[in-house]
Fold:
Amino acid sequence: MADSKQHIQQITEIRNIMERSSRFISLSGLSGVFAGFFALAGAGAFHVYINQRLSYGYGQIARAVPVDIANDFLLFCIADAATVLMLSICFALFFTWRKSQNTGQMIWDKSARRMLLSLFIPLIAGGVYCLVLLQYGWFGLIAPTTLIFYGLALLNASKHTLDEIKWLGISEIALGLIGLFFIGYGVTLWAIGFGILHMIYGLVMYVRYDAKPQQKKYW
Structure:
C-alpha cells in the first residue's frame, strides 16, 4: 500500500514537472482583475464622452453605415483604448513577475514565447481588420469584432497555458457574435467581455492558483 502511494506521488511529481516545462503557468489572476477594472473605466469614459461632447449617442453612430467620424472623436477613442491597453499590460507584467518569483518559474522561457506567439497572431490580424472597418466607416462592427478576435487569440493561446483561458476565450467569442446582431449595444458587450468577464476570471484564477500556489496543481 505504501509503495502504491509512493508510485502515485512520483507520477504526480513527474506530471507536474512536464506541465511546467510545456505550459506557461505564471499568469496571475490579479492581472485579470485589474485588466477588467481598467476596461470598465475605459468604457465608462467613452460613455461619458460620447453623451456629453457629441450630439448623438453610441447607438446612433454605430448603426450609421457608413459613418463619417470626426477627428477629435477618433483621437479620443484611440487614446482611451491605448490607455486601457498599456495599464493592463503593465499590471499583467508586474503580477506575472511577482508570481514567477513565488513559484520559481522563469517568466521568459519557451512556453511563454509559444503562448505569446499564439496570442498575438490573431490579435494582429484582428487589429488590421478593425482598421479596415474603420476606413470604410463600419464603426459599429469594431467593438464586436475586437471581442471575437480576442476570444480567438485566447483560444489559440490556451494550448500553452492554463486551460481556463479557453473558456474565457469562448465567452468572448460568444459576446462578439451577439454584438454583430445588436450593433447598438457593442460598447455594453465590450464592457462585459473585457471588463466583467476578466474580473470574474481573474478572481477565480486567484482563488484556484494564486492564493496558495504551493498547494495547487497546474493541470
Summary: Residues 27-212 form one domain. The chain has one domain: 27-212.
